[in-house]
Amino acid sequence: MRSRIGVGIVGFGTVGTGVATILLHNAALISRRVGVPVELIRVADRDITRDRGLRLNPGLLTTDASAVLTDPNIDVVIELIGGYDTAKRIILDAIAAGKHVVTANKALLALHGEEIFDAATRKGVDVGFEASVGGGIPVVRALTEGLAGNTIESIYGIINGTSNYILSRMTHEGHSFQEVLQDAQHAGYAEADPTFDIAGIDSAHKLAILVNLAYGTPVNFKDIYTEGITSITPTDIAYAKQFGCTIKLLGIAKLVDGEIEARVHPTMLPSTSPIAQVEGVYNAIQLVGDAVGDVVLYGRGAGSMPTGSAVVSDVIAIGRDVRKGIVGRVPVASFQQDQRRPIRLRSMEEISSLYYLRFTVVDRPGVLAQIAGELGRCGISIASMVQQGRCEGQTVPVVIKTHSAKERDVQTAICEINRKPFVSEPTMLIRIEGKDE
User: Fold this and answer.
1) CA 373, CA 390: separation in Å to the nearest integer?
2) How far apart are CA 86 and CA 79, in angstroms?
3) 206 among known catalytic residues
4) Is 31 exposed, middle or buried (0-12, 13-18, 19+ CB in 10 A)?
5) Which of 206, 241, 248, 435 is catalytic?
6) Which of 21, 258, 32 is nearest to 43 (CA)?
7) What is the pLDDT of residues 114-142, one digit of tens each?
């Protein structure tokens, strides 16, 4: 019987500090939950002199990551350096050394998860990655265990706090995207280079992981349609309010006729829906199971302590199994590795949705008829239309909400309409999630 579970951390930044803080401050609680002490044996980082507001025995600190991987007293290696190549090597080397691994590295898992999962399965070790999606929200465990008896019909997720903070501020204050982004950077909610967040790439990484777990199929995030929030304007937000909607950047996955839709883009939601009401840097994920129905998980999607909480939850789960001599009780990717199957990912042009279309046109007779005619020729039915005032000869917005239509048909219609001489700028398109009226 094990007398303790040894833990090593590689990467002592924001999340690493949170993990170490929880392991030390909640040591007695964690020991009671696991049955033996969970002991922090070694912490590796390039900079071990910076004050992190946490006192560690200097003997625990090292600049040599291999000291963590080769230490026989360490059962679980926690990788928190981020990035691709170095992190991947550390994880694979830890697995090869027979160590269990915990990581928060969603980008690495979204790109190289299959290789890591295969290596862990072959070696007979566990990989925990609860912290890779939704920070402190236990969505990974919900999919792998809590909802394991359900066919997951759909996933709707606000899974990037920076984008949600920006859209929330734009919605409530009417400021432009650039104004709010600059404020977010000054407040520390957005990186100096916020591309991964505002372009939807971070959300695509996380959605790839969720789809993998929900449907038991390998998914590369590069195959997920990804669109960010940089084109959203206060004008679109104001029109969304007129339609009773709120704009959020969502990761969406659906099981449709045995195939998967997986996409990240700005989405109009009914303002009364639980996801639409999530504000600021908070994340929320709505899972729909065939047996359970709707399940909504809400919480902090990032930060030292919330993400550290998720990391430590994986350490505790692995520690419990190690103590009992169990490995692989929950398969690394939710399904037994030999039972995972390729499932076709639908292309974006195949999906059906409701659409918000904002045309910027010269106000003159016949313009509306031409727009409606082009939409009709492409099989697109108009649900409602808004035109604010008349300014003949001037540029005005014409906003149309469609009934359910095929993406392919909508894009074809927009392409044709944008060629018209009365159109002064490219048409704005936002997809709408909700019931067709």
Assistant:
1) 21
2) 10
3) yes
4) middle
5) 206
6) 21
7) 999 999 999 999 999 999 999 999 999 99
